[in-house]
Amino acid sequence: MTTRRLFPQYLCEVVSPVPGPKYLSVREHLRRRVAALPELALLPPEPVLCAEYGVSRITLRRAVDGLVADGHLVREQGRGTYVTRPAIRHEYRESFVHRIAGWSSVMTEQGAQVGTTVLIQRVVPVPASVATELRLDPTADVVELVRLRSVDGAPNHVAHSFLPEERYPSAATAEFGEGSLYDFLRREYAADLAHARIVVDVGTAAPEEADLLRVVAGSPLLVVRTTVRDREGEPLLHSFSRLRPDVSQVEFEVSVGGR
Predict the structure, then answer these.
(1) Dihedral (C-alpha) 66, 33, 246, 241: value to the nearest 10 degrees?
(2) What positions does the domain HTH gntR-type occupy (predicted)?
């Protein structure tokens, strides 16, 4: 029987600290470095990294803690801190081909165990950006619905949805602890969910949001913004979801008609 020994590999590039908040800039630079290394590569000892980046041990540990939490590094007693690879454990997936199907429906169909915690459900004056998306008068009210969504017990994203209160009044009191918001709109209001416009960009986790998603405050998040319209082009609802990128994958499937 042949035994294969794994020899430790060390980071060896010496660089200057990048600009910006100390621990965030150190963490981001370390993230880029470890991404280029094979799994099991060991980080140099703390004093070496502190000297390289010109930071205290507290600042360095805060930076490394973020990479450990995000799955880029692992600490092991007696061995040190070494490189790993964050796994894609579940996906954020909505289907907009032939039908408008929400995340909950699609993930359930794929056999995942979906969890929902309603964080906010209330009627509020429409935010300016939402009024533009929904073509509402600035004095109008909307139902604001904020939900923490999980897959197989692990937090995946925080979903913020806005619906015109005049059009969907019962959304302010309906039970959204499970099931699909899209299915609710079809069932209760015969909503014609025919078209969706999706924009993806990047944000950072605020402290309260970071606690919900189990990431370090300031960590990057994927932001998926969706406006759903009927067949006449009238906007029906607007939402944005803020996702952990280390455990989420956004997939788009586009179907082109015969015209």
Answers:
(1) 80
(2) 20-86
